[in-house]
Amino acid sequence: MSAPPNATYRVVLSAAEWRGRRAAHERRIDGWTAPHLARRRKGARHPVEDFLFTYYSYRPAQLRRWHPGAGVLLDGATAAEAGPQYVAVDGGAVLDAAELLARRTGTVGWVRDLLVRTAGRPAQFGCFGLHEWAMVYRQGAEELRHAGWPLRLSPAETDAVVAERGVRCSHFDAFRFFTEPARPLNVLQPTRERQAELEQPGCLHATMDLYKWAYKLSPLVDSDLVADCFALARQVREIDMRASPYDLSALGYRPIPIETPTGRAEYAAAQRAMSERAAPLRERLVAACDALLPA
Length: 295
Known about the structure:
This protein is mainly alpha-helical. It contains 13 helices and four strands.
């Protein structure tokens, strides 16, 4: 199938431009994926660097594949060279956005609604990363998600931090990993159905999930946006684990001791900085959805 011969495109990339952008994207992604793939071949695991490849469903090869987004003509490209979701047109190849949107308009609309509603709420910075602590609350050592790494405090001290401070987690995909004894300690009881109602822009997991929403919109959005969201998600994951109860100093991660007033202040400042960096990415994703959805 091909687009009408008189079709117009919002952007036309010359062969030199799109090949250069594709190569730059692949180099950028290789810097992140090569160490992960090397560890995977050896059967090794990294609790920070590997997380985005194991928690999320987007594979390294998918992340590496470059897409210009909808409405971009790749001058001189063949559909076979561009990929299976592209069609041949006069002068080159273009993403078959109509075919993709016929199946995915509902997803685009849902993602847009979630992002807009999240951005419209005041950011909250008082959770102090205790979601990670709630995931180990009253767990045996053999049951820990990262059992190969020691806790910074004793199990009893770790449990005491959770019990004394309580938990203020609004993100369902964090809450669902809480231990059963920890769930009643949370001030909210998030569900999947209430996700759009509860998510707020100060949440580190909501910021990290911008990567998920970007790749779910791919290839309809450009790969630079997906990669930018991935880059921010990597930084969020580092903060998440530095503030966790695990001791990752052997990997070079200085703890953020949220069990202390100084640590909580440091975490809130980092959380605020990540929220500020997330705002323009969220806006770019909303703008991309708006460009894709019918008026």
